[in-house]
Design goal:
By secondary structure, this protein is α+β, with helices and mostly antiparallel strands. It is built from 5 helices and 7 strands. The protein has 2 domains: 79 residues, Roll (Structural Genomics Hypothetical 15.5 Kd Protein In mrcA-pckA Intergenic Region, Chain A); 35 residues, no CATH class. The protein has a 5-stranded antiparallel beta sheet with strand order 3-2-5-6-7. The protein has a two-stranded antiparallel ribbon with strand order 1-4. Helix 1 packs across helix 2. It starts with 15 loop residues before the first strand and ends with a helix.
Protein backbone atom coordinates (compact mmCIF):
# COMPACT_ATOMS: atom_id res chain seq x y z
CA UNK A 1 0.00 0.00 0.00
CA UNK A 2 1.51 3.37 -0.99
CA UNK A 3 2.13 5.90 1.79
CA UNK A 4 -0.60 8.45 2.36
CA UNK A 5 0.11 11.92 1.07
CA UNK A 6 -0.17 14.29 4.05
CA UNK A 7 -1.18 17.20 1.81
CA UNK A 8 -3.53 15.87 -0.88
CA UNK A 9 -3.82 17.93 -4.05
CA UNK A 10 -6.68 20.41 -3.90
CA UNK A 11 -9.76 19.70 -5.95
CA UNK A 12 -9.71 21.21 -9.43
CA UNK A 13 -11.32 24.63 -9.89
CA UNK A 14 -15.05 24.33 -10.48
CA UNK A 15 -15.48 21.32 -8.22
CA UNK A 16 -16.19 20.52 -4.56
CA UNK A 17 -15.54 17.47 -2.40
CA UNK A 18 -18.54 15.12 -2.50
CA UNK A 19 -18.84 14.93 1.30
CA UNK A 20 -18.94 18.74 1.56
CA UNK A 21 -21.50 18.95 -1.23
CA UNK A 22 -23.77 16.32 0.37
CA UNK A 23 -23.63 18.24 3.64
CA UNK A 24 -24.35 21.58 1.91
CA UNK A 25 -27.23 19.95 -0.02
CA UNK A 26 -28.70 18.83 3.34
CA UNK A 27 -28.56 15.10 2.60
CA UNK A 28 -26.87 14.67 6.00
CA UNK A 29 -27.12 16.69 9.21
CA UNK A 30 -23.37 16.82 9.79
CA UNK A 31 -20.34 16.76 7.57
CA UNK A 32 -18.92 13.85 9.54
CA UNK A 33 -22.06 11.81 8.72
CA UNK A 34 -21.55 12.62 5.03
CA UNK A 35 -17.90 11.60 5.25
CA UNK A 36 -18.77 8.36 7.04
CA UNK A 37 -21.42 7.49 4.43
CA UNK A 38 -18.94 8.07 1.59
CA UNK A 39 -16.23 6.05 3.33
CA UNK A 40 -18.71 3.18 3.85
CA UNK A 41 -19.50 3.08 0.13
CA UNK A 42 -23.02 4.51 0.37
CA UNK A 43 -22.31 7.22 -2.19
CA UNK A 44 -21.77 6.86 -5.94
CA UNK A 45 -20.80 9.62 -8.36
CA UNK A 46 -21.47 8.85 -12.02
CA UNK A 47 -21.95 5.13 -11.22
CA UNK A 48 -18.62 4.82 -9.35
CA UNK A 49 -18.25 4.41 -5.61
CA UNK A 50 -17.08 7.76 -4.29
CA UNK A 51 -14.64 8.39 -1.48
CA UNK A 52 -15.16 11.52 0.64
CA UNK A 53 -12.59 13.64 -1.23
CA UNK A 54 -13.83 12.86 -4.74
CA UNK A 55 -14.67 16.08 -6.59
CA UNK A 56 -18.12 16.69 -8.03
CA UNK A 57 -18.95 19.16 -10.78
CA UNK A 58 -22.21 20.44 -12.22
CA UNK A 59 -23.74 17.69 -14.33
CA UNK A 60 -22.57 14.83 -12.10
CA UNK A 61 -25.13 12.26 -11.00
CA UNK A 62 -24.91 11.40 -7.29
CA UNK A 63 -26.68 8.37 -5.81
CA UNK A 64 -26.53 8.36 -2.02
CA UNK A 65 -28.10 6.24 0.70
CA UNK A 66 -29.34 8.61 3.42
CA UNK A 67 -31.21 7.87 6.65
CA UNK A 68 -34.40 8.73 4.73
CA UNK A 69 -33.67 6.27 1.91
CA UNK A 70 -31.77 6.27 -1.35
CA UNK A 71 -31.69 9.55 -3.28
CA UNK A 72 -30.71 10.18 -6.89
CA UNK A 73 -29.45 13.73 -7.38
CA UNK A 74 -28.04 15.68 -10.31
CA UNK A 75 -25.54 18.37 -9.35
CA UNK A 76 -26.64 21.75 -10.73
CA UNK A 77 -24.55 24.11 -8.61
CA UNK A 78 -21.64 23.81 -6.23
CA UNK A 79 -21.82 24.60 -2.54
CA UNK A 80 -19.33 24.01 0.22
CA UNK A 81 -21.14 25.85 3.00
CA UNK A 82 -24.41 24.79 4.56
CA UNK A 83 -27.16 27.33 4.05
CA UNK A 84 -30.91 27.49 4.18
CA UNK A 85 -33.18 24.83 2.72
CA UNK A 86 -33.90 27.07 -0.28
CA UNK A 87 -30.17 27.45 -0.98
CA UNK A 88 -29.69 23.68 -0.64
CA UNK A 89 -32.57 22.94 -3.03
CA UNK A 90 -30.87 25.12 -5.67
CA UNK A 91 -27.79 22.85 -5.65
CA UNK A 92 -29.43 19.79 -7.23
CA UNK A 93 -32.28 18.31 -9.24
CA UNK A 94 -33.88 15.37 -7.44
CA UNK A 95 -34.48 12.36 -9.73
CA UNK A 96 -35.53 10.06 -6.88
CA UNK A 97 -38.67 8.10 -7.83
CA UNK A 98 -41.69 8.65 -5.58
CA UNK A 99 -42.15 6.09 -2.80
CA UNK A 100 -44.27 3.04 -3.48
CA UNK A 101 -47.87 3.39 -2.31
CA UNK A 102 -48.61 1.49 0.84
CA UNK A 103 -50.42 -1.82 0.62
CA UNK A 104 -54.23 -1.26 0.94
CA UNK A 105 -54.49 -4.02 3.56
CA UNK A 106 -51.75 -2.35 5.58
CA UNK A 107 -53.64 0.95 5.37
CA UNK A 108 -56.84 -0.73 6.63
CA UNK A 109 -55.01 -2.28 9.57
CA UNK A 110 -53.59 1.11 10.47
CA UNK A 111 -57.14 2.53 10.54
CA UNK A 112 -58.62 -0.35 12.56
CA UNK A 113 -60.35 0.78 15.74
CA UNK A 114 -58.33 0.34 18.87
CA UNK A 115 -59.96 -0.64 22.12
CA UNK A 116 -59.40 2.27 24.49
CA UNK A 117 -60.48 2.94 28.04
CA UNK A 118 -61.05 6.35 29.48
CA UNK A 119 -58.36 7.46 31.92
CA UNK A 120 -59.57 7.15 35.49
CA UNK A 121 -62.25 4.60 34.56
CA UNK A 122 -61.02 2.32 37.31
CA UNK A 123 -59.86 -1.25 37.21
CA UNK A 124 -60.58 -3.10 33.94
CA UNK A 125 -63.21 -5.80 34.06
CA UNK A 126 -62.56 -9.33 32.86
CA UNK A 127 -64.27 -8.46 29.59
CA UNK A 128 -62.05 -5.35 29.17
CA UNK A 129 -58.91 -7.38 29.85
CA UNK A 130 -59.90 -9.93 27.21
CA UNK A 131 -60.45 -7.16 24.64
CA UNK A 132 -57.10 -5.59 25.49
CA UNK A 133 -55.22 -8.88 25.19
CA UNK A 134 -57.01 -9.64 21.90
CA UNK A 135 -55.91 -6.25 20.52
CA UNK A 136 -52.30 -6.74 21.62
CA UNK A 137 -52.03 -10.25 20.17
CA UNK A 138 -53.52 -9.31 16.79
CA UNK A 139 -50.81 -6.74 16.05
Amino acid sequence: MPPLDPDPAPAPAGSVRVDKWLWAARCFKTRSQATTACAAGHCRVDERVARPAQPVRPGCRVVVRTPGGERILEVVALGDKRGSAEEAAALFIDHTPPPEPRDPLERLLAQAPVFRREPGAGRPTKRDRRRLSRERNDR
